[in-house]
Model the fold of this input.
Amino acid sequence: MEHHRRRAPRNSLSREGILARAVAVLDERGPAALTMRGLAESLGARPMALYTYFASKDELLDAVRDHVLADLAPEPGEGDWAERLRGVGLDLYRLLVSHPALIHLFATRPLAGHEAADATEAHLRVLREAGFDRATAARAHLALLHHALGAATWEVQLNAGREPEPTRGRRRLALESMPAERYPTLRDLAGELVTDTVGEQQFAFGLDAILTGLRARLDADGSASFHHDL
Done:
């Protein structure tokens, strides 16, 4: 006997419910697995019902990104600028690791939604109000964003921070077995390279290095200008 998926009761769909299910599909199976038809079936609805809320898959993907990023923005005017940006950076990194599809959406889709734009606006405003000039504020914002994207990609792709201890041991042994005359420093730091440079701890190290450099530049000349002839 053929079994049919039970349809959702009329008017039971909602924008929030659709977005929550789309996020779950993206997290479980990645962007390629998300289709309007498949999403509708998983919700027990007809595909056309989703188009009541989203005109296209592109619109849905932009809404998913905004949905996840909705609370990612520094609080206005509260605390030291670097500490505020550090908190946002850590929150963004954790979001990207928890929702790997966000990395793909950042890399492939231009900024479109209000929530994502609001977070970017708040981030840039912190930098400008701290005293950075226009060019430096833009570059600093992108540097912080790219660091989070790169670190999260590394974490997700290589499963860093959750690597089984035997695998780490093999990696360390491989590094320590390299020719000493050619790679003395690499051999010496083999233990640190496979144990201390992974996950959120490593991301925070890089984040602090960027913020420390920005603070030093700001303290040095007040305007924190980049020299474009470098």
